[in-house]
Amino acid sequence: IAGITQAPTSQILAAGRRMTLRCTQDMRHNAMYWYRQDLGLGLRLIHYSNTAGTTGKGEVPDGYSVSRANTDDFPLTLASAVPSQTSVYFCASSSNLGGGNEQFFGPGTRLTVL
Amino acid sequence: GQNIDQPTEMTATEGAIVQINCTYQTSGFNGLFWYQQHAGEAPTFLSYNVLDGLEEKGRFSSFLSRSKGYSYLLLKELQMKDSASYLCASSDSNYQLIWGAGTKLIIKP
């Protein structure tokens, strides 16, 4: 692994189903983030984690949950998917939260909820 | 409130110079980022400004005026591969990024 990976690449999901988007980084970064990107809108932060064992809510956390059991992995779970959660989801990481720390992005997961 | 504004789309000619503007209103401002995003790909970091002034990095330069809540990204000697969306993002008091919707830059031969 080099950098940050996400799985799956794309998914079509029936409304009401549970779904976990996976994110793994090998850069030993402390901070990780989940964003959604919708046409005509900027990236919106869903949840973030400053370090392993801690998580925080972003701008649009409702309907999503995260966990950070270790430094490398930061999965995002949709407990019961709804069509408004159709979006492209990006996971990102940075060495630490704050300052000019560059965020490195994964390739994204394109999720369609029908 | 917190807000980021940037033009939706711009067109420029190969070899020319283009300036993409961004205005922001951010509580507890902690710096301004520019990212590049090619269609269907992830954003990649271009620049970070926290002090007023111009930061030059090869063909790309970024400017910040904190008093005016204004930044621009300057791209020189445009190449076809520069066709992409350019995302402006400000860092707030919690070091979370507030993102603009992006400026789609179209380069014509």
Oligomer: heterodimer
Structural class assignment of chain B: mainly beta
Question: Which percent bin holds the helix content of chain A?
Answer: under 10%
Shape of chain A: globular
Structural class of chain A: mainly beta
Overall mean pLDDT of chain A: 95
Give the strand tally of chain A: 11
Count of helix runs of chain A = 0
Number of helices of chain B: 0
Q: Report Rg of chain B.
A: 13 Å
Biggest β-sheet strands, sense, barrel of chain B: 6 strands, mixed
Poorly predicted segments of chain B: none
Q: How would you spell out the order of helices and strands of chain B?
A: EEEEEEEEEEE
Low-confidence stretches of chain A are none
Pair of chains with the largest interface and how many residues each contributes: A-B, 22 and 22 residues
Q: How many whole angstroms does the radius of gyration of chain A measure?
A: 13 Å
Strand content of chain A: 35-45%
Summarize the structure.
The complex is a heterodimer of chains A (114) and B (109). Chain A has strands at 4-7, 10-13, 19-25, 31-37, 44-49, 56-57, 64-66, 76-78, 87-94, 104-105, 109-113. Chain A has 114 residues and is mainly beta.
List keywords for this structure.
heterodimer, A: 114 residues, mainly beta, 7-stranded mixed sheet, 4-stranded antiparallel sheet, 11 strands, 45% strand, globular, B: 109 residues, 6-stranded mixed sheet, 5-stranded antiparallel sheet
Structure description:
The complex is a heterodimer of chains A (about 110) and B (about 110). With about 110 residues, chain A is mostly beta strands. Helix content of chain A is about 0%, strand content about 45%. Chain A has strands spanning about 5, 10-15, 20-25, 30-35, 45-50, 55, 65, 75-80, 85-95, 105, 110-114. In chain A, strands 2, 4, 5, 6, 9, 10 and 11 form a 7-stranded mixed beta sheet that branches. A 4-stranded antiparallel beta sheet of chain A has the order 1-3-8-7, with no helix packed on it. In chain A, strand 5 and strand 6 (about 55) form a beta hairpin. Chain A is globular. The relative contact order of chain A is 0.33. Chain B is mainly β and about 110 residues long. In chain B, the strands form 2 sheets. In chain B, strands 2, 4, 5, 9, 10 and 11 form a 6-stranded mixed beta sheet that branches. In chain B, strand 9 (about 85-90) and strand 10 form a beta hairpin. The interface of A and B includes residues 41, 58 and 99 of A.
